[in-house]
Each structure stands twice: as structure tokens, then as C-alpha cells.
Design goal:
The chain is α/β, with parallel strands linked by helices. The protein has helices at 59-71, 106-114, 123-136, 157-160, 166-172, 181-195, 249-256, 261-270, 273-278, 284-292, 296-320, 330-335, 337-344, 356-359, 384-396, and strands at 2-8, 13-19, 24-32, 39-43, 50-52, 84-91, 102-103, 143-147, 203-209, 213-219, 222-226, 325-329, 366-367, 376-379. It contains 15 helices and 14 strands. Bound molecules: adenosine-5'-diphosphate (ADP).
């Protein structure tokens, strides 16, 4: 089945067209600078890359240009737009309403809209993308919303509740939601399949380590805890995000640095993390280089990242009263052997033993723990777009 996957930002629209029977990407690309001027970058295997700078005043025009490119006689991959059987949309926030992907209708759109305050940067753009596709694709083409938060909706109240006055948490729907759910779901399912084990029998810690990083505890097929919270700022320190800090630091900074709520938000989201700590970069390749050259703050940033990762893995083993599998995924998790090794260092007491010969330089789907390790440690490359396409297909079927 041919499924179009759309990930809309406020001025961008990334897309991938999948043939789900094979998992092949037939074409992919990005529209950027929507509402400014417009640039479409389009790639299809076996065809010339294509770039268009036709004006994109809004997302509707951008989606139309994507569809035009897909059926173009030179670089297109479809003979008719009707070949697209459904569109899967990445949607950041589904609030507490959806624990699964859903076919978009008016109620779903209302929920996405109601969640604007919880995902102010993403949800409006995601809804715009859905409405653009509805306007431009043949009538009746199903639109599916795949929520980043959905996988985590199985968490018990003790894991998702914040110890604030209960009435306030209820009034504003303040709770832990968690993000990267599509990735955590995909790699946790995939690792069970890869190991030939029953998903419902396993206790899994999934470590999605990228620019944004999050962990999930998946106990017998259900997410029972995750590190991101009301927003994707919580958890481990990240590229530019501070992660968990003493909440009293927020009013302290606002008072002493004379910052507004928006300014302190920007400071914690964009100027903190390993970038803010090191003053070097948010990219772990740059940090590694700087650290090797003797930059102490880069070394501190790496040490903190590894230390916090290890603490989370340990705490999730405690939360699940055991762990069978640890999965590393995303940019850092897939590519950075020393982070994987350090995050597991010293965890032999709980049955975790990395085999350096299997871990070093490894980037592919594989087991990296030693044969006598009680806990199996794996690299599972994530593929959020394919996961969205598969979930979309399941719903449409
Ligand atoms: P996101 O999707 O959240 O933007 P990614 O999952 O692509 O992020 O991860 C980005 C991070 O992954 C970067 O900080 C970079 O340090 C790391 N990374 C990506 N590729 C490599 C690589 N080949 N070697 C080492 N680190 C890498």
C-alpha cells in the first residue's frame, strides 16, 4: 500500500512516500520556508534530484507542490495521485485522549486544537498539515494522526502525576505525557521481533538518544514510565535542553537575571544542555573531539550525559523490578559506541555486560552485550517515518 507520511512544522513540511509491503521509500523530501518564499527538495531513488523554488504562501500550496512532484512525468513515482491510499501525520501532542493512532475526524481535530497550549510550536503546524492534505488530496483519502505522546498513555498515575496541588494539575492537564512515542514503540516491538521473543514477556528499557533524548520503561508490552514530561524539556540533559533541574532554579533565574517566562523557556530549551555546558556544540561528534583535545567543559558535558543515562537505566530496572533488554537508538544511540558503553558501565551487578568487540564501531541492528550478559543490550535503528506508515496502514486496513 502506498502511504504518504507528513511531518509539518510551522514553516516546513517533510514527507516520505512508502510502499509498505516492502518498506521501500519511493520518494522523500522537504518543503521549507513556507510563508516566506518556498523551497521544495525532492529525492526519488533512480531519478534525478529535484529542487523547486516555486512560491509557497501556505501549507496547502506546499502539499500541492509535493503531490505535483510525485506525479511529475520526469521525477515522479506515481501515475495518479489516487494511488496514495492514506496519509500518516506526525502529531506531537494528543493530550490524555489517545493511546493509539486514529483516523482524523472533527473530534480528533478538536483534540489536536485543544492541545495547542501543550504543544504550542508543533500542534498548530500539525493540524495545518492535516487540513492542507484534506483540501488537496482526493476526497475520502484517510488522514491518520500518529501522536508522539500516545505510546506513553499506558503509564500508571504514580508515574505520570506531578506532586503539585491536585486541583491545579487537573485544571491545566499538567502531567507527564512523554514524547518520541513512535520511536519507543517501534524499537521496543522491533527488538522483540529481532530477538525472537514475545513482546509481552519482556521488560525493556528503550534509550532514544538524539538531539532530544528520552528513555522509556516498557514492561510486558506497556510503557510504564518515560523521562520526558509535560513538555520535551524533561529528563536527561540534551543537545540544547537542560533536562531535569531543581524547579526552584526557574524562579531564581527569573528574579536574578530579570527574565520573562519566555526568556527563561528559551534559555532552558535552546541555550542549555551539552551545548550550554560545553560552550562548544550540541553535536556529540564535536564534543568528543573537543574533549580529546583537553576541553574540560566538553568532557564534563559528556560525563554528565553518560552518568544521567546510567542512572535512568538503573531506575527503570528498579521501576520494572527487572530488565531483560536495553535498546539504544537514534543519532547518538546508533552511532556512538562510547556513550553506549559508558551508559552501561558498572551495571554488571544487575546483569548488564557490554562486549567491546560487538559494540565498538557498530552502527547496525545487533546485540552488543556479551554472551554471558543476563540482560541483552541491542542497537535498533529507529525509523519513525516507517513506523508512522505502518500504523497508518494498519488503521486503514
Ligand atoms: P534529532 O532527530 O533529534 O534531530 P538525531 O537522532 O539525528 O536527532 O541525533 C542527532 C545527534 O546524533 C547529534 O547530536 C550527533 O551528535 C549524533 N550523531 C548523528 N550521527 C552521528 C554519527 N555518525 N556519529 C556520532 N554521532 C552522531
Amino acid at each position: 500500500m502506498k502511504i504518504l507520511v507528513i511531518n509539518c512544522g510551522s514553516s516546513s513540511c517533510k514527507f516520505q512516500l512508502f510502499e509498505t509491503s516492502t518498506g521501500d521509500v519511493l520518494a522523500k523530501g522537504n518543503c521549507e520556508r513556507i510563508g516566506i518564499d518556498g523551497k521544495l527538495t525532492y529525492k526519488a531513488p533512480g531519478k534525478e534530484d529535484y529542487i523547486s523554488t516555486e512560491a509557497m504562501p501556505d501549507h496547502k500550496v506546499a502539499v500541492q507542490l509535493i503531490l505535483n512532484a510525485l506525479v511529475d512525468k520526469d521525477h515522479g513515482v506515481l501515475s495518479d495521485i489516487g494511488e496514495i491510499k492514506a496519509v500518516g501525520h506526525r502529531v506531537l501532542h494528543g493530550g490524555m485522549y489517545y493511546s493509539k493512532s486514529v483516523i482524523v475526524n472533527d473530534d480528533v481535530k478538536k483534540v489536536i486544537r485543544d492541545c495547542f497550549p501543550l504543544g504550542p510550536l508543533h500542534n498548530p503546524a500539525n493540524l495545518t498539515g492535516i487540513e492542507a492534505c484534506e483540501a488537496v488530496l482526493p476526497e475520502g483519502t484517510p488522514q491518520i494522526a500518529v501522536f508522539d505522546t500516545a505510546f506513553h498513555m499506558t503509564m500508571p498515575p504514580k508515574a505520570y502525576t506531578y506532586a503539585l496541588p491536585y486541583e491545579i494539575t487537573e485544571k491545566y492537564s499538567i502531567r507527564r505525557y512523554g514524547f518520541h512515542g513512535t520511536s519507543h514503540r517501534y524499537v521496543s516491538h522491533r527488538v522483540a521481533e529481532f530477538l525472537g521473543k514475545n513482546y509481552e514477556d519482556l521488560k525493556i528499557v528503550t534509550c532514544h538518544l538524539g538531539n532530544g533524548s528520552s528513555f522509556a520503561a516498557v514492561d510486558q508490552g506497556k510503557c510504564v514510565d518515560t523521562t520526558m514530561g509535560l513538555t520535551p524539556l524533561a529528563g536527561i540533559c540534551m543537545g540544547t535542553r537542560c533536562g531535569d533541574i531543581d524547579p526552584a532554579i526557574v524562579p531564581f533565574l527569573m528574579k536574578n537575571e530579570n527574565l520573562t517566562p519566555d526568556e527563561v523557556d528559551t534559555l532552558m530549551n535552546k541555550k542549555s544542555g551539552v551545548q550550554g555546558l560545553s560552550g562548544v556544540s550540541s553535536d556529540f561528534r564535536d564534543l568528543e573531539k573537543a574533549s580529546k583535545e583537553g576541553n574540560e567543559r566538553a568532557t564534563l558535558a559528556l560525563d554528565m550525559f553518560e552518568y544521567q543515562a546510567r542512572k535512568i537505566i538503573g531506575s527503570y530496572a528498579a521501576a520494572m523490578q527487572g530488565v531483560d533488554v536495553i535498546v539504544f537508538t537514534a543519532g547518538i544511540g546508533e552511532n556512538t559506541d562510547y556513550i553506549r558503553a559508558k551508559a552501561c558501565e558498572g551495571l554488571e551487578f544487575m546483569g548488564v555486560k557490554i562486549d567491546p568487540a560487538k559494540n565498538n564501531g557498530n552502527r547496525s541492528e545487533s546485540i552488543i552485550s556479551s554472551d554471558d550478559s543476563r540482560v541483552t543490550v541491542c542497537i535498533i535503528p529507529t525509523n519513525e517515518e516507517l513506523a508512522i506508515a505502518q500504523e497508518t496502514e494498519e488503521l486503514v486496513k
